[in-house]
TrEMBL record:
Organism: Heterodermia speciosa
Location of region: Disordered: 285-316
Protein name as catalogued: Rhodopsin domain-containing protein
Name of a matching Pfam family: Fung_rhodopsin
Record field: transmembrane: 20-39, 51-70, 90-117, 129-151, 179-199, 211-235, 247-273
Amino acid sequence: MATPSPPAQDSNLRGMAVSSISLVTFAIGANLVFLRMYVRMKRHVTGWDDYTICIALALSLLGTVADVYQVANGAGRHISTLDLTQLSEFIKWTFVEGVGFVVGTFFVKLSVCIFILRFIHRTRQLLRNFIYVLMGFLVVSTLSLVIALLAQCRPLKALYVFTVKGKCYSKNVSIAVAYVQAAINVFTDFTCAGLPFFVIRKAQMPRSRKIGVSIIMGLGIFTACFSVLRIGFLYTNHSKDVTYDYLVNAAFAVLEMNLGIIAASIATLRPLFVNLGPMARRIPDNRAKAGSRGSGTLLSPMGSTKTNDLEASQDI
């Protein structure tokens, strides 16, 4: 009689797929942020929108590392195939990824808000005030969510070390926190994605450039859609087979954050391509002429000013 073979390990193609998505989108984002910083430093217009997107990229790297460790410890496999050590490591790195996602997406949206302020003339005070209020809301909501995540177990180690006794949130509280976070993300994502269209519409720049910038910034709408899709898969956070089911939610989170970094950076790279092709038109550097064209000013990083929307648009 033939000896029965041991049960085969289930394939981890799901885990490898999410790791691949994370690594590829991070690599694209990292290259675009590098190009963004090159353009801004070359043109001497670096500002807080650039610094905050770099912080977001660093947190994206943390999330990518967390994804790799999650997969190495069973993410994508059925929970019945894992031992307690693997499950403990999976929970720990899922927590790290969650905190990194909340803070990372905050810095992406903060960078977008600061970037948009470059276009807004100081006479449009109502719109500027709205963006400042939105930035304040982002700060308060992000701090609240991070505190909620850090306080879910006391001590926190009880979350992922099964031998440590502690007091943790009930399942209902954890679900409520997850849905509140998702709702805030949807609201702030679509608000940040929609703002550029209101700004560009009245900006003093050629129509062709308006259309181009609007299309690029419209990538933010596409990115925001992933925050909506994530809501439909939040139940996987508390699935009985969480290591297998959670991967879909993780994939949407990765795409939401990394595509946000990509969209925010592409919008700044026009100076790299403005001279490509016979139809391209060279954009003169008007910084030396600031102060000689009208009296209005625009917010610009590092304390510099722009005299109109067209000049501001040349820095993206």
